[in-house]
Design brief:
heterodimer, A: mainly beta, Protocatechuate 3,4-Dioxygenase, subunit A, 5-stranded mixed sheet, 3 helices, B: mainly beta, 4-stranded antiparallel sheet, 28% strand
Chain lengths: 235, 199
Amino acid sequence: MSLIYPIKSLENYPKHLSPGYRSTIKRSPTKPLIVVPHTLSELTGPVYGHNAIEDGDNDLTTMGKGEPLGERIIVHGHVLDEDKRPVPEVLVELWQANACGRYVHVVDQHPAPLDPNFTGAGRALTDKNGYYKFITIKPGAYPWGNHHNAWRPNHIHFSLFGHSFLSRLVTQMYFPGDYLFPFDPIFNSVTDEKARNRMIATFDLENTVPEWALCFRFDIVLRGREGTPMEEGAH
Amino acid sequence: MSELTPSQTVGPFYAYGLTPKGRAHWDPDGTYSWKETVGDNLVTPDASGEKIQIVGVIRDGDGAPIPDAMLEIWQADAQGRYAHPRDPRAPNASFKGFGRSACDKNGEFGFHTIKPGAVPGPDGKPQAPHVVVCIFSRGMLRQIYTRMYFPDENNEGDAILALVPADRRHTLIAKKEKDGVYRFDIRVQGGDETVFFEI
């Protein structure tokens, strides 16, 4: 048996057009997407090995000359498939704002300080148990132009590969209890509450390191599950 | 009941994390640096086949270029083999078949790659040579998939193209700009909207 990628599993993804997030209005397809069978072209995808990353790529606090400012945190978890089996050797890429809510990208003109010791990008590869770990700084909230007084909740961007090009995922990790949740159209573009909550990390006291860093757990579920022989033929 | 982690937009500031050496000028003063894992040049010295360039512009519903989009491509090698365990015909080169291009301020993207060969299709017949394209952008809450086919290949009988209404098929077929250069302009929305797939 091999993995299948049922489209039905995507029902809790955001809709392409989600007008509360204004930029979707001109950037979403208006004609119906065409459903096609999954061929070898879709059922394969880029494979990464340990040469994709180097030691230290997962520690965003040690890449500058000195330590970045802000609240040091650990973010870790497991990457799983739809059957909750670990997905090993997944390239996990992460990027985020600094503690003040500022990105190093030149287009970000939020008048908050940059931190010369913090770029905000990292990479990790999941181990044989699907486990990954980053050390970083808790990102700050920041304003954006979507509507009057719009602020993004604190979040970390994640990019992941999986068993195929269909399991490709770009998402955002949020922090528990954020008071900006009710006002953020990107977070609320996922209309199902349970699905939305799967983007929120949980505070992990057990793995918090005393006198050093708070820990957050963020498990990520990618497309792909075992199909019955009958399902494998029909998509 | 599937419990997928939902997709969210890549946002406007992905470049320093995902395409740090790409054409998005995120760091004009060279203050920061970050290594690149995936770039827009897929060609490896040991790869056989015709070296080609794929170029294009991505535009929104107003026809305006999208400067903060990112494209990824996935393709077979010149012999139509995928570098993946699900394809039993293991490639004999280090050609991976995967690339990533940021867009510049004019919404232009580009790749250097090898022209792919025909790959096995769902009905046992070969599919016409093609490249799978995956698009991310600010304003896209989830990625959109399309395919690029070649104007100088026989696309008749391709099982996927056959599912596309005949009057829209041309949006999936690149234009030959000159020898070795194929143009694949993408229209996310509007009159000549590119065909996107629900997969």
